[in-house]
Amino acid sequence: AQRVTQPEKLLSVFKGAPVELKCNYSYSGSPELFWYVQYSRQRLQLLLRHISRESIKGFTADLNKGETSFHLKKPFAQEEDSAMYYCALAYNTDKLIFGTGTRLQVFP
Amino acid sequence: NAGVTQTPKFQVLKTGQSMTLQCAQDMNHNSMYWYRQDPGMGLRLIYYSASEGTTDKGEVPNGYNVSRLNKREFSLRLESAAPSQTSVYFCASTSAGTYEQYFGPGTRLTVT
What we know:
The complex is a heterodimer. Helices cover 0% and strands 45% of the residues of chain A. Chain A is mainly β. Chain A has one domain (3-107): Sandwich (Immunoglobulin-like). In chain A, strands 2, 5, 6, 9, 10 and 11 form a six-stranded mixed beta sheet that branches. In chain A, strands 3-8-7 form a three-stranded antiparallel beta sheet, with no helix packed on it. In chain A, strands 1-4 form a two-stranded antiparallel sheet. Chain A is globular, with a radius of gyration of 13 Å. Chain A starts with a strand and ends with a strand. In chain A, 35% of the residues are buried. The model of chain A has no long low-confidence stretch (mean pLDDT 93). Chain B is mainly β. In chain B, the strands form two sheets. In chain B, strands 2, 4, 5, 6, 9, 10 and 11 form a seven-stranded mixed beta sheet that branches. A four-stranded antiparallel beta sheet of chain B has the order 1-3-8-7, with no helix packed on it. The model of chain B has no long low-confidence stretch (mean pLDDT 94). Chains A and B meet through strand 6 and strand 10 of A and strand 4, strand 5 and strand 9 of B.
């Protein structure tokens, strides 16, 4: 069965430090992976998807099929990056399964 | 475009009471979803609807019913609320052939 694992519930860093939010997945097919973000008092929104290979707000994520990982990275964290981040895996044509989420706190 | 809207924003129920959470989208999306968000559990799919008139169970459907009234609206009903259903409920939608889901603002439900 498909599964998404985010091992860290909370990640705290200082402004300017590098950030890596971990995501591992289990899926028998060809994976499509996403990162969603939820800022305080805002709705959940798509941050990036592996297929587009783009950088959004300085964040990147590379799909590593060998390690079944899709870690989210940013070289220099900003205070406005503080939010809840969810990794998600697509399955069955139009469903997503979400990880348990990682709260990122960036201190000034 | 309002995107995905949900009502109400907050609700407090007593055990055994019933209520319906409303969701509507104006993006002409085919698929709609109901999730619950609990601390440490992430988002879990309750029900989803691939098109008007069709619904399917997700990961945690027990205690809930849904209705896809038309393409725009997808409601979630709690027939007899239980404290275990205290959660934040999110509705989402997506168009066919894409996995990008658009979320509503959520409904915070407390069952006492």
